[in-house]
Amino acid sequence: MGEFVYKAITASGQTVEGSMEGKDERSIVQSLHQMGYIPLRVAVAEIKRSSGGLSAFLPQRLGLQNLLVFTQELATLVSAGLPIDRSLKILVSMTENRKLQDVIRDVLRKIEGGTSLGDALESHPKTFPKLYVNMVKAGETGGFLDAILTRIVKYLQSSKELRDSVVSAMIYPLILTVVSGLSIAILVTYVIPRFAGMFSDMGQAMPLPTQIVLTFSQVVQDYWYIIGGAVALAYVGLKAYIQVPARKLQWDTFKLGVVMVGDLIKKIEIARFARTMGTLLQSGVPILTALNLVKEISQNMAIGQTIAHVHDRLREGKGVAKALEEKGVFPPLAVHMIAVGEETGKLDEMLNKIAETFEGNVQTTVKRFVSLLEPLIILLMGAVIGFIVISMLLAIFGMTDIKF
Predict the structure, then answer these.
(1) What is the pTM of this model?
(2) Last-in-domain residue among 123, 157, 191
(3) Which spans in 189-241 are helix H?
(4) What is the CATH number of the domain that holds 65?
(5) Residue 302 — φ and ψ, nearest 5°?
(6) pLDDT at 45
(7) Which tens digits make up the pLDDT trace of 107-131?
(8) Residues 132 and 193 in one domain
């Protein structure tokens, strides 16, 4: 048994919230249904943090998590039979994020003025992407908005799970790199200069490894701003270089060819393509419109050009699988599965299966990549720190005439 907090809607449309003990979230939902409530949010009870102080004045971001929660709650209310305007009024009072609250309030105002939900959402492109808006419009046109919102929730959940799995897997290597880098920086800028003064006073010839370390330390101390500026300039230069579409295409194509990294990027892009296309087609969005939307959300220009090629070939009467095969970017497994989907008339279902397959492959590839990356980082940083330590010891042993 544990304590859960909930937010729900009463039969009269009022918002209620509270806490309840239960075995799990499902049992809490069942209890709320028995009480005549429509559950909106059920979660494990946590210690409530004060909303005052500095955080009350800090800007609040609108991320994927906020959009997911909003869509979940809107889907629940619409599925329960509440009108859109009433559902949005409830969400305005429930939403904790001030920016999202302002957006919902503006959407509600437009709907009350006679605008459709899709058009109202479209006026806030930074909050609701084109993919989201087009799916809502398709749901409104077809008269199945509740089903569309449920599909959007599943899509956002899948996208979030894929992103979170990649981010969480990379946290430890990132921490390891930062800690090791700081250790080396402290040795080079603080520890080694102390030894350098002592060695200089002795007036004794230093071993070559010690000379290399001392010279490197001196260069870092004297020219750190030049080194930092060169790194920043290189980064800005690369960003400026790839602003040109042709160069961006070259860079993205190069990334796809990098060992392991390219394979991972390709799998992530294919999973995103399949998940988005499958969801759009199931939602009633025309396939040519869906391809245009998917092309826009692709983060790799080489993949985006492949999708644009499919769009053009489809207008000429060719199939999706055939067009993908011509470009040779998508792996044979994905192409064959799409071909089967076209032959059986179940392309949307097959695309979702492809998404599940490649999302699983992404998680496996990330784990394999991290399992190789971690020991490489440890070996590299250990070698650098070991070289520094040994070079200092060689000089100390030379000063004290200790023989090996």
Answers:
(1) 0.68
(2) 157
(3) 192-202, 208-241
(4) 1.20.81.30
(5) -65, -40
(6) 61
(7) 999 998 888 998 999 899 888 888 8
(8) no
